[in-house]
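Q: Here's a chain of 168 amino acids. Please give me its 3D structure as tokens.
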Amino acid sequence: MATSVFLLFLPLIFFSSSSTVDRSSRASSLSVEHADDVLTSRNGIFSAGFFPVGDNAYCFAVWFSEPYSEGNRTNIVWMANRDQPVNGRKSELSVLKSGNVIITDAGRFTVWSTDTVSESPVFLDLHENGNLILHNSDGGVLWQSYDSPTDTLLPQQLLTKDMKLVSC
């Protein structure tokens, strides 16, 4: 079944030395093949993109932009597809017209999804607190990384009795 995938715009927020951020930089997807396909929070503290987790294996993650001082190791704070890393070629994160965000591998198999639907345009933003949020055009939150914590809790992130913290 041939299905056309319609991609919406995914705001790429770049760190700027001024107090305003140009939100006009947009793309329909982020590719594992382009190291500069990274979202950066307005304050420059957090970045999100494909992160190498092994030989030719990548996961979509949020991390502190500056490595901590001991050994220059990057500190990952959230990871989408930790159980299904994707290949280093032709894999991507895409924002679909349906309002869903998916990660596909080289064979175009969906390995991760927000499982969201929206009739209005959606935007993926990396907030200053490290929360990756999918908004609809009215600003409503459809999905957020804070609702599916992995191995790190950040300030302002709640861990309720119905949530599970996952660590490797």
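Q: Can you summarize the key feature?
A: The first strand starts at residue 10 and ends at 11.
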